[in-house]
Design a protein that fits this description.
The protein folds into 2 domains: 30 residues, no CATH class; 180 residues, Glycoside hydrolase family 11/12, catalytic domain (Jelly Rolls), CATH 2.60.120. Helices cover 15% and strands 50% of the residues. Pfam families: Glyco_hydro_11 (PF00457).
Amino acid sequence: MKFFAGLAGLFAVGAIAAPIAAEEQALEARNPGGINYVQNYNGAAANFKYNEGAGTYSASWNGNTDFVVGLGWSTGAARSITYSASYSASGSGSYLAVYGWVNSPQAEYYIVENYGSFNPCSSGVTQLGTVSSDGSTYTVCTDTRTNEPSITGTSTFTQYWAVRQSKRTSGTVTVGNFFNYWAKHGFGSSYNFQVLAVEAFSGKGSASLTVS
């Protein structure tokens, strides 16, 4: 839609409307999910490779890497996200998750579809119950991060987690179900970016994904 907005005045001229529409259709054919955002925090440590137009990426890691990579959208609305993945993370501290931020009040969120050796809702967090969505039950919890890196620099913010009890590597995530549940616990609606991400902070693993 940015393409249309930038050329809005041209639509008054019938002769050039068709070529613009054809170009937009071509863009959508290459990128049917509308993906327009690349998350690449420390991606060099993960051998991160991606094709934004195709909605595909891969990563591999070995050691204390501390990275977050993925593809998604610059505005993290409550869309449904479909993905398929090859994800191997045995013995690794890592997550395969829908990941993003909310601006106000500032918060970081994860809908964890699969994980390695550590369940982030297992201990040291505030338990919020469960959400039934997309064929499984998700354990929901929050945590407070104090003076930690964020999208606005060092700050204090809430982390919202939903961890799928039956792990999977493909399917559709109905993100709105989690946003609605978290909203009862202070989650805002001023969305920042949203991606289907792989994060790792220890161990060894690899992943390749298609996102739409």
